[in-house]
Automatic annotation (TrEMBL), chain A:
The gene is pdhA_2. Residues 82-344 form the Dehydrogenase E1 component domain. Gene3D superfamilies: 3.40.50.970. This is Pyruvate dehydrogenase E1 component subunit alpha. Keywords: Oxidoreductase, Pyruvate, Thiamine pyrophosphate.
TrEMBL record, chain B:
It comes from the Bacteria. This is Pyruvate dehydrogenase E1 component subunit beta. GO terms for molecular function: magnesium ion binding; oxidoreductase activity. Its cofactor is thiamine diphosphate. Keywords: Oxidoreductase, Pyruvate, Thiamine pyrophosphate. InterPro entries: THDP-binding (IPR029061), Transketo_C/PFOR_II (IPR009014), Transketolase-like_Pyr-bd (IPR005475), Transketolase_C (IPR033248). Residues 14-189 form the Transketolase-like pyrimidine-binding domain. It comes from Actinocatenispora comari. Pfam families: Transket_pyr (PF02779), Transketolase_C (PF02780).
Amino acid sequence: MGDKPATKGRPATKARSGARRSRPASTPADAAALQGSAGEHGSAQEPEFVQLLTPDGERVEHPDYSVDFTDEQLQGLYRDLVIVRRLDLESTALQRQGHLAIWASLEGQEAAQIGSGRALRNQDMAFPTYREHGVLWCRGVDPTAPHGLFRGNDHGDWDPAKHNANLYTLVIGAQTLHAVGYAMGINYDGKVGTDDGEAAIVYFGDGASSQGDVHEACVFAGVYHAPVVFFCQNNQYAISEPVERQTRTPIYQRAAGYGFPGVRVDGNDVLACYAVARHALDQARHGQGPTLIEAYTYRMGAHTTTDDPTRYRTGSEVESWKQRDPITRMRAYLTKAGIGDDDFFASVDADADRITGRLREFVIGMPDPDSSRLFEHVYAEESPLQDAERAWFEQYQSSFVGEGAH
Amino acid sequence: MAKQQGPLTGTQTLTIGKALNLGLRRALEDDPKVLLMGEDVGRLGGVFRITDGLQKDFGEDRVLDSPLAEAGIVGTAIGLAMRGYRPVCEMQFDGFSYPAFDQVTNQLAKMHYRSRGRITLPVVIRIPFGGGIGSVEHHSESPETYYMHTAGLKVVTPSSALDAYFMIQQAIRSNDPVIFLEPKARYYEKGEVDLDASLASAEPLHRSRVVRAGTDATVVGYGPTMRVLRDSADAAAEDGRSLELIDLRTLSPLDLDPVYESVKRTGRLIVVHEAPNNAGPAAEIAARVQSECFYSLEAPVQRVTGFDTPYPASKLEEHFLPDLDRVLDAVDRTFSY
């Protein structure tokens, strides 16, 4: 299950609809990646995808995705990767220690989330699933904001309009339609066609690709030429089910059926994820319509803290993906290129310590929500039924006062 | 539906269908953020022609012929509403609203609550509902119970041209999601509408109304059953019984104060709807009335409803649907105590 080093200048994997570079429905590499071998998934061989940074940290060029990163950008991306992983590991620990009811880990998917998240421009709108903690980080959402959802205090405590990042969606794939509708609104507002144009990006997984809502979203996006990017993190598993339980063809190739381009990117390569997402977003904002991106990655942890992945995958498979870790390769590259030295890496670690410490303190100190919240915001306007129930409940609660019971 | 010859003004005799059409037209004129979307609502004007002529006058970006996908229609409407639009979705028939059920009940209904008021979704979902049109299966359903049961949704249904004209405009102006149930078997019933009257002067959206005063028993209905109620009251009057009729108009929130006030005078209540009996709207109304009017009731609340079967083949629907005789039978029963 060894890692095959990436070669330079791989052929493009775009499946442009009706465009010059059409590809066969699948390639031997695709088939190998999909079927795996010896019951292992996504580890036998790397599929064809856009890659700018090999697992060994070697910078490679791609003919369609040439991006010049400044040293500051590269340092920033590394810092993001490290911080969101540390926040994630801390969150898992907080769950294990009883401070969160559940946690959905992003470990292994940092590059896909940071690359695409940093590719967004301020005016773009992101629609996450429930695992996009890294995307929220890029949108300037406080890293403590999602934790109320996972503690049971609220359903996520950030203002979607302020950060251009919607609330998490737990019904698989439902948010893809919201993103497409939002993008249709961008079109009707005339906010496409210039550098200031707007775009939406929607996150979903390989499991979601089976959902009817995702199909309908792709249909609407294609028909209305909506400025939306479908960003599928294929992390190889929907809880326990491997991706071959979801599809017989590589996910990105489905785009051709909807009439827009699809592209597969190395989801553990933050530079490639950035480049591919930035290109797709810019196409959208300039009125060129939707793109489907399949970020080929791996969920290193459990589906959530309630899951036991040892029941459905092997240690050697997990080990093979560790060799493609997004942070390790970035650190190797920065070191070799002289962009990051020991002081830099230490300062990033210190930042991560500080931010993670604040998260820990915040979560442990989160007070239980007041019971009055039960009845708030059911409706924007008149709400007589809830008003009556609230009045009854308050009277009922107050009947216990003095008995020390609640 | 007749083609419009210039703008209509003054008091007109209109069908419910035409009143809805003119109400939608007014809403499109009044607010550029209002969009209509659905299957066949554009060039065709909808299978019932409720949106007739609107795409021609307002364009394809205001009146959208959508792909044939109900979850897609509602899901994209949510996104459009997040962007500041006021989408009015048409579900072509009641039975076809179910493919959109997750988007309606999990997504649309809960967003305001989940976001703690940060996101409002002013989406209207128009659903032609109810039976009696001799159609094939899935075209005659009464889905109101599902939507009434879902916190976060408002549910209304007009039974006259006047209400159709104003209530659709009020629903579109509401900042809450509104399920707007249109009694499709009554689309061609006519009534007078003063098109010059202001929206502000109309009956508020979430109010029930006594539509005929009476003294002996209270009969409550809404939407498609209101004609049955009127016919029943006429027939009962010949028997010397005076029925008070109440049109609920709003199913969520329910406005039962007029019902309580009436039952406290009459002591007898009959609730009529086409939706199946079990756990239906009448069950909720009966429970609340027995709680509020316990010492006034002279007889158990009677329910006249569809049966607890799937909607039958159309040759059987006359037996399924509440009709004059079943209402009068229920009235007789309330007087047997």
